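Supplementary Methods. Inverse-folding protocol.

Structures were first reduced to a discrete structure-token string of length 293. This string, shown here, constituted the complete conditioning input.
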């Protein structure tokens, strides 16, 4: 494969370079794409860029040679797996598909995940499908896909201009009362890369030393809700990374997936009409609540 140079058109203007490459190089694992960006193998207008770089119309993107695309190009996905993850569509029109994501599947493929949810949806709906945002592997609920470039550009614009509203439900440790806005810096692995994040926690109901809360997020940082919940000493139940495993065990209700669910999402469509979708709790979440009543 020789060096490939791409000129960014109007439809892709405003997209992050990482999201653009995840779409254009859809057969490559997500980890590989981030690796070539960080190593400077991808250049924009002959300059190194960060994954967060926003593309502009007319930008010249250099794609490196020898990516071994054929190694990943023919993913075989079982028909039952496709059915399992595409049978619970919450909303669909000519621009968007919103699905109720299940637990324990990553949205992108990677070194530990040969098949991501995006691979499954492209297998069923075609290569034009793009992810509008992400959910953690262990998080269930509303997840939006775009069917065309104008739709992904519109969603990106809505994110940047705070027009996307996301509400999550979580079961947390301790008795949480009322409402609380948490505005704290968070980081995933590297403290020097801390960024301010803002979340609003609202109590829905309290149980046996636990609480059901709704969480509205105003920023979209990685693991934002999970980290904020831990920072205020109300970690999410069964969160293996930021939670309190001893407390979870003391509840004596068994083992469950993380009690975090993307409950509702709303945003304006290309014609400015608002799309608002919500989805019910998964069985695991329901069972946790019932055992703690």
């Amino acid at each position: 494969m020789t060096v490939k140079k791409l000129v960014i058109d109007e439809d892709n203007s405003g997209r992050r370079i990482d999201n653009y490459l995840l779409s254009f190089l859809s057969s490559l694992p997500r980890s590989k794409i981030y690796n070539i960006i960080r190593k400077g193998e991808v250049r924009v207008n002959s300059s190194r860029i960060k994954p967060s770089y926003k593309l502009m119309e007319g930008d010249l993107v250099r794609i490196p040679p020898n990516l071994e695309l054929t190694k990943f190009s023919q993913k075989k996905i079982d028909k039952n797996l496709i059915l399992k993850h595409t049978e619970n569509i919450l909303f669909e029109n000519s621009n968007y598909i919103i699905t109720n994501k299940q637990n324990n599947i990553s949205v992108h493929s990677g070194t530990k995940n040969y098949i991501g949810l995006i691979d499954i949806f492209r297998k069923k709906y075609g290569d034009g499908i793009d992810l509008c945002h992400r959910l953690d592997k262990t998080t269930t609920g509303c997840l939006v896909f775009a069917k065309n470039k104008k739709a992904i550009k519109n969603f990106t614009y809505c994110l940047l201009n705070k027009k996307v509203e996301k509400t999550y439900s979580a079961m947390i440790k301790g008795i949480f009362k009322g409402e609380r806005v948490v505005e704290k810096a968070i980081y995933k692995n590297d403290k020097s890369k801390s960024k301010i994040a803002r979340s609003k926690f609202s109590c829905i109901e309290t149980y046996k030393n636990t609480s059901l809360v709704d969480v509205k997020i105003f920023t979209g940082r990685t693991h934002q809700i999970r980290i904020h919940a831990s920072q205020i000493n109300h970690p999410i139940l069964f969160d293996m990374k930021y939670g309190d495993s001893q407390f979870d065990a003391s509840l004596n209700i068994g083992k469950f997936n993380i009690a975090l669910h993307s409950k509702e999402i709303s945003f304006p469509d290309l014609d400015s009409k608002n799309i608002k979708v919500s989805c019910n709790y998964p069985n695991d979440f329901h069972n946790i609540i019932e055992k703690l009543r």
